[in-house]
Automatic annotation (TrEMBL):
Keywords: Ligase
Source organism per UniProt: Nocardiopsis sediminis
Primary enzyme class: ligase
Domain DNA ligase D polymerase: 31-291
EC number: 6.5.1.1
Gene: ligD
Region (Disordered): 293-318
MF annotations from Gene Ontology: DNA ligase (ATP) activity
Name of this protein: Non-homologous end-joining DNA ligase
Alphabetized PANTHER family for the sequence: BIFUNCTIONAL NON-HOMOLOGOUS END JOINING PROTEIN LIGD
Listed InterPro entries: LigD_pol_dom, NHEJ_LigD
NCBIfam families in alphabetical order: ligD_pol
Amino acid sequence: MSEGVEVFSAGRRRVGVGRPGKELFGAGGVTKRELAGHYRRVAPFMLAHVRGRPLALHRFPDGIDPGASGTPGFFQKNLPEYAPEWLRGVRVDRMHGGPITMLVCDDTATLLWLADQAVITPHPWTTRAAALRRPDRMIFDLDPPGHDFAAARRAAYDVRDVLAEVGLACYIMTTGSRGLHVVVPLRPEADIDAVRDLARGIAGAAARRHPGRLTTEVRKDKRGGRLFLDTMRNSYAQHSVAPYAVRALPGAPVATPLWWEELDAVRSAGAWSVRSLPGRLAELAAGGDPWHALGRHARSPRRAGERLARLTGAASPQ
């Protein structure tokens, strides 16, 4: 490899990371070398949640604060023509415009290639390449008004209560930004529009129980300081931050899956960063991954819709 490139091994592949000492998060901040090391380190935990899914790539070639002469961050959804042949892509139809080929991340080597491309945050779809309109995840995005992380915690428990009543398991994750994601594993048996409607119905049920704290009102000027139960990640071609993904924010915070039992002790969505996460990973290696059984707890969205209809008196999504 040429000068200025550091080679990382991943299985049988060797992936070069150019300009490894480049600081992506400002002076003294996390470098490309550290970003690549992070994604290689979290791969055993992360890949189960991104494998087989189209990815939107949040890239920052000149770092998160590029200055007037640099390139600002941008989303790249198409697999670039210069990508190595061993990368996998999937052809997808867009809501607007013609079809494109998007990257699918199946292995650690792909994560390392993403780091070389200064992809700070990969964003997977809720569907897999083999069934682009049948989600196996449902996501509730809970960003608090202002910086009231405690409000996001309360909302997560409120959503979990409704999910339990309709027979759905759920998992919790800090987003690394402001709030939390409640993630629901599903059997991929329903169309994405039906899953979107189910998510809206569950959010509506939670908001009606706690109208002083929660809302499903999309317009910010009508929320009245209440937390918005955002279900928009459940529409076709939408995406969300991946578990263990780094966020393009000062300090390089990381979206981190949690045990529900430890949520009360977490004080912010950015509780872990690239540089502090290794300590948590060591704890997980000893005590278990909080999301290790997520796929085994997938339940039927159709049956959940029927239970929700009985609970609320509304029509069940088809």
